[in-house]
Structure formats: C-alpha cells, structure tokens
Amino acid sequence: MNEPPATTGPPAAGRVLVIDDDPTVAEVVAGYLARAGHHVDHAADGPQGLALARAHRPDLVVLDLMLPGIDGLEVLRRLRGHDAGAQLPVVMLTARGDEADRILGLELGADDYVTKPFSPRELVLRVQSVLRRSRAGAPAPGSPAGPVRSEDITLDGPARRAHRAGRELSLTAREFDLLAFLLRHPGTVFSRQELMARVWGWDFGDLSTVTVHVRRLREKIEDDPAAPRMISTVWGVGYRYDPARDAEEDRS
C-alpha cells in the first residue's frame, strides 16, 4: 500500500460523495470522513452515484471501481464527460491486483487512488490532500499564485482556467496543477519523484501516477502528443517544459 501523502495546513473540509456497494466499507469510510469534518453522501451503485453527483455537486468523489449497475470506470467516464465534472476531484478505490484498471482510471482523469485493503486514516489524508489542492486559487506546492503566460498558453491560477490559442482547455484538477507547475519552471528538468513531491505534495507514491498525468496533459496541449514539443522527456531524468523549442523549430 502506498504511504499517506504529506499534508500541511488545516483540513480542507467539503462535501464528499462515497460510491461503494459494500455497506461495511461505506459506513467506515463515511464515519472517518465525517469525523474529519466532511459532509458525506453515499451511493450504493453507479446510477445512484451519478444521480447524487448531479443533484448535490460534491467537492470530491470517493469511487469504488467494482460497482453493480454501472461500473466505476464508466461512472468516471460519465463524470468527466460533463463540463461540471471536468475538474471534480475523484479518488478511486481499487483492488490491489487491478493495475490495468488503476492505470485506466488515472488516464480517465482520476486524481488519486487507494488500494484495498486500506487504512481509513490513509484515505482521509488523501481526500484532504486532493481537496486542499483542488480549491479555487490553490497553487501547486512551491509555486506562486497568479496568472502565467507562455507561448500561446495562458493560465489563470485564481480562476483555475487554462487556454491555448484562445481555446479553453478541459483539465482535471491534477492536470491543471501539473501544467501550472511546469509553466512556472520553464527549461527545468524534474524527475517523477520531484513532480510527485512538488505538484502532488506527496513524499511517497506510485510514480506511474505522474507518467499517466503527463501523457494526459500532452494529449490536451500538444499538436502531436506522440511527438511532444512542449513537455519533453529527458531520458533517465524526467520531464521538462521548454516553450522555446516551439519558436526555434517554427523558425527552422
């Protein structure tokens, strides 16, 4: 099991929707979240979860992938398919051996995951970490707040909106944080461990989370994600945002 993320500051309490068909797991999770100051709604299947998400607009969803009716991955697809859900933070609950589903969930835009069996305290810490980071105007750790412009990308930190060439980008909370961090550090190479610490705020975690989010971000800002020009891979080291490459190559 991954270690709990590092957290700083007061808990970011909010309205949390727990979608899990196991009544014991749901009761324990809801109890721990409520004691941490969160308002908790519970849905026992996919259709009910989607209905509650539309009705109550939660601040975060804790989503089990193994659900009756509509499975968790399809729930995540539908949540991400609506503008109102584009930046809705989602923490997945997955079985330890379901790596393929875990990666697919991250590719669909989940912000974090916890593998079963899990510590309820770890889940609360991860929920609070994701909530704290997803609040409007919250910059990535180590990054100053405020608007950023680089090449044809404009990022408004307080509004948590990003545009490229005048077109608004549909980014999840984690994708926005990653883009904000890279834009504020052009030309600097960061390892996956460094990005996990400085963007996610975690001291430990699955580094594939960073890899998947970089891939998703490339799909949204690169002209050709298969041959990225803005977010470069520095083999054996990590990733670098280098807008100068666009200008240099366009002049060649």
TrEMBL record:
The lineage of its organism: Bacteria, Bacillati, Actinomycetota, Actinomycetes, Kitasatosporales. It comes from the Bacteria. InterPro entries: CheY-like_superfamily, OmpR/PhoB-type_DNA-bd, Sig_transdc_resp-reg_C-effctor, Sig_transdc_resp-reg_receiver, WalR-like, WH-like_DNA-bd_sf. Residues 15-131 form the Response regulatory domain. Residues 135-148 have a biased composition (Low complexity). SMART domains: REC, Trans_reg_C. The keyword Magnesium does not apply. Residues 145-243 form the OmpR/PhoB-type domain. Pfam families: Response_reg, Trans_reg_C. Residues 135-159 are annotated as: Disordered. Keywords: DNA-binding, Phosphoprotein, Transcription, Transcription regulation. This is Response regulator transcription factor. Residues 145-243 bind DNA. The keyword Lipid biosynthesis does not apply. The modification 4-aspartylphosphate is found at residue 64.
